[in-house]
Amino acid sequence: MSDDERDAGRVRCRKPVHDVRDEGQVQAGKPVHGVHDEGYVTAEAALVIPALVLFTGALLWGLMAACAQIQCVDAARAGARAAARSESSATVDAVARGAAPRGAQVAQSRKGDLVQVRVTAAAPGPGPLTLTLRGEATALAEDTVGR
Fold first, then answer.
1. Angle between helices 40-84 and 89-99 (to 10 degrees)
2. Among residues 15, 89, 109, 123, which one has the fewest Cβ atoms lying within 10 Å of its Cβ?
3. How many domains does the chain have?
């Protein structure tokens, strides 16, 4: 049985192969219908690349600010735990500053049985992008438990 006889019952679904030049669209690398789009890719790249760089910078700044905010909250909690154990003010400051972002300020207060620690820091970033980040924690003083 020959190939033609074997394939007689089958439907062939092969697309014919066309050369693009045969359809009159491109001739020697240039459009033949008068459309000139040689500079569009360069213009689009010149607009898109700076926008992507700015967007990436904004995302990185937001991530750094979020990390600094988390550090402020963690530092306030660590300071409040130390203050609740009746540690000295210097120890509470040292514990809170150890967990806080660079340049943070620590304030502590006591109101009755509660001790409160506030940590304030500037978000990393250039001039107008600096935000004031705050973390605050309150704990029950251990020396008042069981009275």
1. 160
2. 15
3. 1
Residue whose C-alpha is closest to residue 136's, from 88, 89, 78: 78
- The span from the CA of 28 to the CA of 26, in Å, is 7
The amino acid that residue 76 corresponds to is A
The predicted structure's pLDDT at residue 43? 80
Domain assignment of residue 1, yes or no = no
For residue 31, is pLDDT > 60? no
Percent of the chain past pLDDT 70, that is, above it, reads: 71
Looking only at the bridges linking them, the beta strands covering 26-27 and 114-122 are unpaired
Domain membership flag for residue 29: no
Domain that holds residue 61: 38-144
Q: Is the dihedral of CA 78, 80, 83, 84 positive or negative?
A: negative
